[in-house]
Structure formats: structure tokens, C-alpha cells
Amino acid sequence: MIDNKFVMDRRRLLLGAGAGALAGSLPVLMPRKAGAALRVEITQGNPQPMPIALPDFVAGSPAETEIARNVTSIITGNLQRSGLFAPINPAAYTEKITNSDTVPRFADWRVINAQALVTGRMTRQADGRLKAEFRLWDVFAGQQLDGKQYFTTPDNSRRIAHIISDAIYQTLTGEKGYFDSRIVFVDETGPKERRIKRLALMDQDGAGTRYLTRGDDLVLTPRFNPSTQEITYMSYGQSDPRVYLLNIETGQREIVGNFPGMTFAPRFSSDGQRVIMSLQQGANSNLFVMDLRSKQTTRLTDTPAIDTGPCYSPDGRYICFESDRGGSQQIYVMAATGGPAQRISFGEGNHSTPVWSPRGDFIAFTGQARGQFSIGVLKPDGSGERLLTSGFHNEGPTFAPNGRVLMFFREQGAGPSLYTIDITGRNELKVPTPSLASDPAWSPLLS
Amino acid sequence: MIEIGKILRGVRLAAVLATALAISACANQAADNAGAGGAGGAGSASTPGSQQDFVVNVGDRVFFETDQTELTALGRATLDKQAQWLTNYGQYSFTIEGHADERGTREYNIALGARRAQSTRDYLISRGIQAGRMKTISYGKERPVAVCNDISCWSQNRRAVTVLNAGS
């Protein structure tokens, strides 16, 4: 990510291959006072959303008016949905920003109680590329907090908006953002007893859905490779159900391993070099891992039980999984090499679908007790269990790249939909999808 | 126990009726969950040895209690009849489909359905059916037959279905 915010001449390749955007810092228009900190406190208590003003980005020429407005709208939406910011109604703005290279009239923004102000500009370059610039201002201190410019192709304007959103989030919260990321999920159509399921991909805000499979085969539980170019999932194919790999860019897919039975519940290791999964063996299911380069498979558990839902810790040293070896579905942790496993879930009812936070501090799960299905978190040592949301059916949490937000699916009368909730339990929101949706998995940051 | 038995019998009757209707309505949709597609099964339910005979007169499915994989007394009785029929009509190979109700998580239900199929398979083997004639598959909670949100519905979905392979 960007760490030299105020170094003028530094430019670096920000995005991976294919995206082709260059980022650089803008000259600071006013000196920044040392120690001044406009901050949203997100780690404790009940944070008050920070009032922030986001006037439409200036269009370099009339042709960019719409794209400038769209970018502003995407940034506004991201910050609002985070629950940490309260974008102010543009109708209240008194200063019209016509040039993003001039210092705003801070008094005009103080009057409407904006604490932060974002100005920016979108300009088409002679070579056809788009230049996106933004500046983030501390209104009460009257100073610039951040300023950057990016060059990209016009079809990347949505990603630029997400990258700018992450830069604002990071400056104002002190933590990395999660907006420049995607969700792979299962799109569902048709009646419940004959549901058609397709793998689908979208931006984290629900925009830009595209489908990765056609719906001929039943597909379940897609998961991202940390490189974000590849997913692993379970498919019924035309014969026995198996774990597959799918390259998102090329569409190439292959079966993982050569196992003598059904494989399911796959997940990548943190370094993307291995896939861990369950293999059905008679009445039991055990955990196996396959090294994707050597194709070597290793058995990790050997119990007369259902061991499934495996997930690695972010440092790759541990595996959490669910097992009914003790009589009910509970969460266990063991070394990544296998061996003895420690039960960590002791709250009421069953605990399943564990997933480790990218920050390492929590494991999220699906809880089942008294006929209710909940999304909860606990610490990897088993302490601090908390339920974040409960109801008829909530299932399958997945962490945002910064570990602050969970996405999951909720079954209601019509079928499943996707929701997000902060790990504090606040700010529950529905994620828009074209039709019914389940089994979400959040990608790492794309840049 | 009497109550449960009554419910299960009712459920089973309903399932059989639904299956019979499905056959008459769309005889060529082999994807039907009951597995009674008309492709390989000549004749009506009254034709001994036909797929319809198996579904309607023997009963192609057994049901399980919540989160259980052991066969019930009623389930064993049904499988005894299946074993007798499969012994008489040795030309059929078949697939045992294990299913779970929707009140569980996806991955666990896949494993649970596999266990139910395995219980059914083991029982049929114990009644003299050759292992080589059968395979198992689990659909977890992905293919409910009954669609509603109450307990009587869920009980119909916790099942193992013996599907005769068309053309075998």
C-alpha cells in the first residue's frame, strides 16, 4: 500500500498486472502540522460516524463530468456503508469546488460541521488514459492530510474510486481499508427444489457482477486464492462431486487431486500454495491437504467423525476446523502439519464453518442453538465468544481484508441474501445482488 | 414413538403419491429427485420389476431423525423390502442419494448426507445385496423434495433415496 504520502516525486506502480494504474502523491498545498490527527476511533466504544463532505470531483473537461460524478458517488457509498463516516448532504454545501488545486474555504465547510473534506478531479489525458486526483482535508485544522494522483484506463474508474476510498479510510482510521476487493459467491435462481447455482464475482459493494459458470453443474463454497486470480470450489460436475480450481482470467479449471471419493469444503493456504479440504471415506470425513505444485497429498486427520470446514491461520502455522468427534459440531485448532487438535468452542450449541481473520485476532463461525443460526466470533484460544447476529438462519461468515467486517448469507422466506456486519456487531447491511446469493468469500485487497 | 411413526408413514405416503404424480406428469424428466425417470422403466406401477414398481410398491426412500444417521425401525423395514426386490431383479444397479434438511450448515450437511447414504448401503449389503451394484452420493441440503419451513417438511428432506440406474 501507499506509505510515503507526502513525498512529492515518488511514483510507484500501484496495481497488479492488467489494471495498469500509476499512483503518485500530489504536492501538499499547505504545511501539515506535526501531531495533528483527525481520527475516527474504531477500536473502542461506540464510534460516532465522522461527518465528511464529498463534493463531486471536478471534471477536467465536460466529457468527464459523468465519470467524475460516478467516482464521487462510489467513494461516498463506500465510506457511508463502513458505518464510520457520515457523508453530508451535498445540498448543504456552500462552496462549489471548481479547482482541486486550490485550498478550499474551510470556513464554508466548518459551518456545515464537516470534519473532513475530499476534493478531486478526473481528467482525460492526451493518450486516452484517465488521471484521477484527490485531496483529503482536515477542515478544522485547515490542512491537507493526503493527496494523490492515479493514471489508469477509463474502464478502471470504478477501481480507482475504491482505491481512493481505501486511502481516505486508512488516513482517517489508521487502519487499512477493504474497498478495493471482490466477492466470489454462489448466484441462485429457480425454485428451491431445483435451484440453479452459478459461481459469480462482484465488487465488494455489489457492483459489476459477472458469472464464472453457466449453471449446468451444482457448485458450492467458492474460496479465493490470496493472489485473487484463482478460486477453489466444490462442483458436482457430471459425475462424483469434487474440489476444483478455476482460473478467473483464463476460465481454465481442473480437479484438485486424485482422491478415491467425494472431496468438499476446500480452502487455500495463506500463501496460496496448498488447498486443504475434506475427503469422504465411508461414513467419515477427514482433512487432507494438497500441494498445488508437487501435487502431493497429505492426510491431516484420521478420526471416525466428520472433520470439515478447514481454514488456515494467516501465518500458516495452524488450522481451524469443525468436527463432531466429541458428539456435536465444534471448532478445533491444530498445527498445520496435523496431530492433536484442541477444542476451542464451548459456548451454547453447535459451532461450525470457522474462518480465521486476516488479522489473526478472531475466528468467525456459524452458531446453532435453540433453533437459531447466528454469526459469531471468538479468539483463537477459545475465549471471548460473542454472537453478532442471530435469527432463523445465518451462515458462512467471511472476513474483509482488514478483518473489521464480516459478510455472510441469511436464509429468509424467499431464499438466501448476502449481508455484512462489523465485528463489533454493529452496522448490519444487505449487499445488493442480482438474484438470490449464498456462500460469499471475500478476496484480499487487489492492490 | 407412535406419534413419529404415524408422521413418518404419512410423510412416506405423501412422497409416494407425489412421485407417482411426477411420473405421470413428466415421464421423461429423469432428473427428478425421486429418481423415477421413465427412461429405462417400461410399464406402469403394476408391472412387476419396473422402476415404477420399485418406487410405488416397495418405496425408494428412508427417513432419518434430526442430525441422525442411524436407520429407524421403519427405515429398516423399507430396506428389507428393497433388498428383497433388488434380489429378485438383479439386473439393476443403483445409486443411494443421501440428503439433509436445511437446518444445518452446508459443509456439515454434505458429510451428513454421505453418512446416511453409507448407513443405507451398509444395511443393504447386510441383506445380501452386492456392493458392486451400488454407489453413493450426498447432496447435503441442496436438493430438498419438500419446500416449506416447518418440521414436517424438514423430516421429508432428511432421507436416503435408492435410485435405480436407468438402462441398467
The gist of it:
The complex is a heterodimer of chains A (about 450) and B (about 170). Chain A has about 450 residues and is mainly β. Chain A has helices at about 65-80, 105-110, 155-175; strands at about 10-15, 20-25, 50-55, 60, 85, 115-125, 130-140, 145-150, 180-190, 195-205, 210, 220-225, 230-235, 240-245, 255, 265-270, 275-280, 285-290, 295-300, 305-310, 320-325, 330-335, 340-345, 350-355, 365-370, 370-380, 385-390, 395-400, 405-410, 415-420, 430, 435-440.
What does this structure look like?
- The complex is a heterodimer of chains A (447) and B (168).
- With 447 residues, chain A is mainly beta.
- Helix content of chain A is 9%, strand content 42%.
- Chain A contains three helices and 32 strands.
- In chain A, strands 1, 2, 3, 4, 5, 6, 7 and 8 form an eight-stranded mixed beta sheet that branches.
- Chain A is elongated and about 70 Å long.
- The model of chain A is unreliable at 1-20 (pLDDT under 50).
- With 168 residues, chain B is α+β, with helices and mostly antiparallel strands.
- Chain B has one domain (2-164): OmpA-like domain (60s Ribosomal Protein L30, Chain: A, 2-Layer Sandwich).
- Chain B has five helices and four strands.
- Chain B has a four-stranded mixed beta sheet.
- Chain B starts with a helix and ends with a strand.
- Mean pLDDT of chain B is 79; it is low at 1-42.
- The A-B interface holds A 191-195, 218, 220-221, 234, 240-241, 262, 264-265, 278, 280, 282-285, 306, 308-309, 322, 324, 329, 352-353, 366, 368, 371, 393, 395-396, 411, 413, 439 and B 31, 33, 69, 102-108, 110-112, 114-115, 118-119, 137-140, 142-147, 149.
Oligomer kind: heterodimer
First CA to last CA of chain B: what distance?
39 Å
Biggest sheet character of chain A: 8 strands, mixed
Summed up, the helix count of chain B is: 5
| CATH superfamily membership of the largest domain in chain A | TolB, C-terminal domain
Helix content of chain A: under 10%
- Rg of chain B over CA atoms, rounded to whole Å, is 15 Å
Which of globular, elongated, flat, extended, rod-shaped describes the shape of chain B?
A: globular
**CATH arch. level architecture of the largest domain in chain A:** 6 Propeller
Low-confidence stretches of chain A: 1-20
**Looking at the structure, what is the overall shape of chain A?**
elongated
CATH top level label of chain B: Alpha Beta
Largest interface: A-B, 37 and 28 residues
The total strand number of chain A stands at: 32
* Highest-level CATH class of the largest domain in chain A: Mainly Beta
Rg of chain A (C-alpha, Å): 23 Å
Name of the CATH homologous superfamily of chain B? OmpA-like domain
Mean pLDDT over the full residue set of chain B: 79
Question: Could you tell me the number of beta strands of chain B?
Answer: 4
What order do the SSEs of chain B take from the amino end to the carboxyl end, as H and E? HHEHEHEHE
The CATH topology of the largest domain in chain A corresponds to Neuraminidase
